[in-house]
């Protein structure tokens, strides 16, 4: 018997076979050396982060305690036909610390019309009530403490 005339010729050449898993892994960077390198980089990054975190905690913890200053407005009084304002406030500062405070006077538009820096001597008391008169350039309607700091 002879082969039919219409039959397709047989392809005896090797076909393009799919690459093996090893070739694909190498092509896309999934080899053992890449995994080891990635793991080393990840561990190195984690160690660097831990070092920075520990250094920051030590730096912040050893910064030391600075004396805490608290200041609270307690009142104001208009004087001399609104040409001066008497401001009263409480100052809380650890005993033995000299401080300075800024006192402001405002007009009805909340514009600063008077300003005065007060030097407060050291005291053996933690909490003190202070009063200061601020002269103004224009008619004032209120006075406030701006802030205090150690000197």
UniProtKB/TrEMBL annotation:
Keywords: Membrane, Transmembrane, Transmembrane helix
Listed name of the protein: DUF4307 domain-containing protein
Keyword Membrane in record: yes
Membrane-crossing segments per the record: 40-62
Record region (Disordered): 1-30
Top-rank taxon, per record: Bacteria
Biased composition, class Low complexity, residue ranges: 1-20
Pfam families: DUF4307
């Amino acid at each position: 018997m002879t082969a039919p005339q219409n039959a397709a010729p047989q392809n005896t050449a090797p076909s393009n076979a799919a690459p093996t898993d090893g070739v694909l892994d190498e092509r896309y960077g999934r080899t053992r050396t890449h995994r080891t390198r990635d793991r080393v980089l990840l561990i190195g990054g984690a160690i660097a982060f831990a070092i920075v975190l520990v250094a920051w905690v030590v730096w912040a913890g050893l910064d030391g305690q600075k004396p805490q200053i608290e200041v609270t407005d307690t009142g104001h009084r208009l004087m001399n036909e609104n040409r001066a304002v008497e401001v009263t406030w409480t100052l809380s500062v650890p005993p033995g610390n000299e401080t300075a405070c800024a006192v402001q006077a405002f007009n009805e538009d909340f514009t600063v019309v008077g300003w005065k820096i007060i030097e407060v001597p050291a005291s053996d008391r933690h909490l003190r009530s202070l009063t200061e008169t601020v002269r103004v350039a224009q008619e004032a309607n209120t006075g406030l403490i701006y802030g205090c700091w150690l000197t």
